# Entry
Amino acid sequence: MAGNRCEQCENIMVREIISPQEYLFCANSLVGLLLAGDVEMTFSTCSLGRIVDDDMHFTMNKYFHQFRCTKCGTIYGMLFNTKTGGEIRINDKVFDPADYPDKKEE
# Structure
């Protein structure tokens, strides 16, 4: 399905996420896409509004958000581990968090 991205979702960054700041940027971008109706959330281990607490500390160590383009149905997944990083990627099937093995610290 990676080749079937439409003009609505082709600008979603499929990328590695290295730092917590990058993850927060990606999560904020996802909120904008959800509010615009460009994507719909299909699975989440934590609501986007609860990633950090009032003191800006992460509420969990691992986060996973799965979302789908409302126009073409392309499925995206965003995984982030606060210690090892993460990624946004496309699959041709509904995501299973087990598809994302934790990155090993080098």
Residues 15-91 form one domain. The longest helix spans residues 20-36.
